[in-house]
Write a structure and sequence with these properties.
This is RDD family protein. The chain is mainly alpha-helical and 140 residues long. The chain is built from 7 helices and 2 strands. It has one domain. Strands 1-2 form a two-stranded antiparallel sheet. Helix 1 crosses helix 3. The protein is elongated, with a radius of gyration of 16 Å.
């Protein structure tokens, strides 16, 4: 029996948790580097150096590397007890994890419909899962 596919809402919760953790990391970086743009109310809509560094670090370390490791998922996915695997339920490679992260662009530019697809199909696959040949399933 194969593990139960993770649907839209649990994946949304994992992304929400990742977003909060990324914001906390960015705040810490802003404080450490003294990024005044980050704390300026007149800079609304502008991207600060801390935003760029924090987002990049979170994406590469906690999404790409964690997903390709034995953890098989970002901190948000770990908290929600779900994991990313290949079609045959094996661990994905670092290259595939990076490609999956890049494929998020496709899920985003389709007015987020690529993400919503996880709620509409039997296998609970988002567009980036289909493109990369991955699945998100519940952990044992």
């Amino acid at each position: 029996m194969s593990p139960k596919p993770a649907g839209f809402w649990i994946r949304f919760l994992a992304l929400f948790i990742d977003s909060i953790l990324s914001a906390v990391l960015t705040l810490i970086i802003a404080v450490l580097i003294g990024d005044s743009t980050y704390f300026s109310s007149s800079a609304l809509g502008e991207t600060s150096l801390a935003d760029s560094i924090g987002g990049l670090i979170y994406s590469l370390v906690f999404i790409v590397i964690f997903t390709a490791s034995n953890l098989m998922g970002s901190p948000g996915k770990l908290a929600c007890r779900i994991k990313v695997v290949n079609e045959d339920m094996t661990q994905i490679s670092l290259l595939k994890s990076f490609g999956r992260w890049l494929a998020y662009i496709l899920s985003t530019i389709t007015l987020l419909i690529g993400y919503m697809m996880a709620g509409w199909n039997r296998e609970k696959k988002a567009l980036h899962d289909i493109v990369c040949g991955t699945r998100v399933v519940y952990r044992d």
